[in-house]
Amino acid sequence: MDITFEQVTHVYGRKTPFEKRALNNVSIHIPSGSFTSIIGHTGSGKSTLVQHINGILKPSAGRITVGDFVIRANEKKQNLKALREKVGFVFQYPEHQLFEETIIKDVCFGPMNFGVSEAEATKRAEECLQLVGLPSQLWHRSPFDLSGGQMRRVAIAGVLAVRPQVIILDEPTAGLDPMGREEILSLFKDLHERLNLTIVMVTHNMSDAANYSDQVIVMDGGKPLMAGAPERIFSQVDQLRKVGLDIPETMEFLNRLLDRVGKKETIPAFTINE
Ligand code: ADP
């Protein structure tokens, strides 16, 4: 599903002393089937931006199109349930939302909430728990017996079991160690490739954005500053540092980036701010 923002503005606490324009006339395009990373300094509007994609937030002005769904400012009657069935949202620390007495019941909750029968939901839950690599001997245990990384997989299986076409990830690796991070991101990369899922990931980790996505959008002060392929975005290191982004100088990061760039016909200038 193609996602388009047209002149979208979002103001929190309108006409209060706390009024804050978190998005300012944003126009962006996220192509169907892409893996897009949204990067930017804290407070630049990343979370606000992605929460418009499944209607958690409504725009104060402008419109968002997600496939056939259109979300406009001031529109009262909207079929958000149908939109949310297509756009899954993995919140930060999604494991905090687990609540059922068994893992399998927790994963069934999402699809059953969208009207899927218990038998079908169970079938999907088993499929998705397999997809996220959770051993079947754990499925009938309490989710609270699991490690943090395993609980996160269960929460992700719950989102996948609804069978969305788009998945929004808000800092999906927050709090995980490097191995857990790599595992979760490889899982999404694999799902993206196998199921042609469109993925939109908010991240503060530049290596993750460079390694896993095919499009990067840089937010700054409620506006997109740049958008494009990671090799193009990360070749503008000086500009990224100016907007407060932490670009690592480790050889590992540069080598991986140069590896990717090397596969393209044109090699953009790569400058490092010493
Ligand atoms: P990011 O995800 O890039 O850190 P956010 O989208 O969370 O940025 O926030 C953008 C701006 O909007 C920030 O200045 C933040 O303080 C403000 N903001 C976010 N959520 C709210 C809210 N619920 N009420 C008021 N202001 C908010």
UniProtKB/TrEMBL annotation:
<dbReference type="InterPro" id="IPR027417">
    <property type="entry name" value="P-loop_NTPase"/>
</dbReference>
<keyword id="KW-0547">Nucleotide-binding</keyword>
<comment type="subunit">
    <text>Forms a stable energy-coupling factor (ECF) transporter complex composed of 2 membrane-embedded substrate-binding proteins (S component), 2 ATP-binding proteins (A component) and 2 transmembrane proteins (T component).</text>
</comment>
<protein>
    <recommendedName>
        <fullName>Energy-coupling factor transporter ATP-binding protein EcfA2</fullName>
        <ecNumber>7.-.-.-</ecNumber>
    </recommendedName>
</protein>
<dbReference type="GO" id="GO:0015087">
    <property type="term" value="F:cobalt ion transmembrane transporter activity"/>
</dbReference>
<dbReference type="GO" id="GO:0042626">
    <property type="term" value="F:ATPase-coupled transmembrane transporter activity"/>
</dbReference>
<dbReference type="InterPro" id="IPR003439">
    <property type="entry name" value="ABC_transporter-like_ATP-bd"/>
</dbReference>
<dbReference type="GO" id="GO:0043190">
    <property type="term" value="C:ATP-binding cassette (ABC) transporter complex"/>
</dbReference>
<keyword id="KW-0067">ATP-binding</keyword>
<dbReference type="GO" id="GO:0016887">
    <property type="term" value="F:ATP hydrolysis activity"/>
</dbReference>
<feature type="domain" description="ABC transporter">
    <location>
        <begin position="3"/>
        <end position="246"/>
    </location>
</feature>
<dbReference type="InterPro" id="IPR003593">
    <property type="entry name" value="AAA+_ATPase"/>
</dbReference>
<comment type="function">
    <text>ATP-binding (A) component of a common energy-coupling factor (ECF) ABC-transporter complex.</text>
</comment>
<dbReference type="InterPro" id="IPR050095">
    <property type="entry name" value="ECF_ABC_transporter_ATP-bd"/>
</dbReference>
<dbReference type="InterPro" id="IPR015856">
    <property type="entry name" value="ABC_transpr_CbiO/EcfA_su"/>
</dbReference>
<dbReference type="InterPro" id="IPR017871">
    <property type="entry name" value="ABC_transporter-like_CS"/>
</dbReference>
<keyword id="KW-0813">Transport</keyword>
<keyword id="KW-1003">Cell membrane</keyword>
<dbReference type="InterPro" id="IPR030946">
    <property type="entry name" value="EcfA2"/>
</dbReference>
<dbReference type="GO" id="GO:0005524">
    <property type="term" value="F:ATP binding"/>
</dbReference>
<comment type="similarity">
    <text>Belongs to the ABC transporter superfamily. Energy-coupling factor EcfA family.</text>
</comment>
<keyword id="KW-0472">Membrane</keyword>
<keyword id="KW-1278">Translocase</keyword>
<dbReference type="Pfam" id="PF00005">
    <property type="entry name" value="ABC_tran"/>
</dbReference>
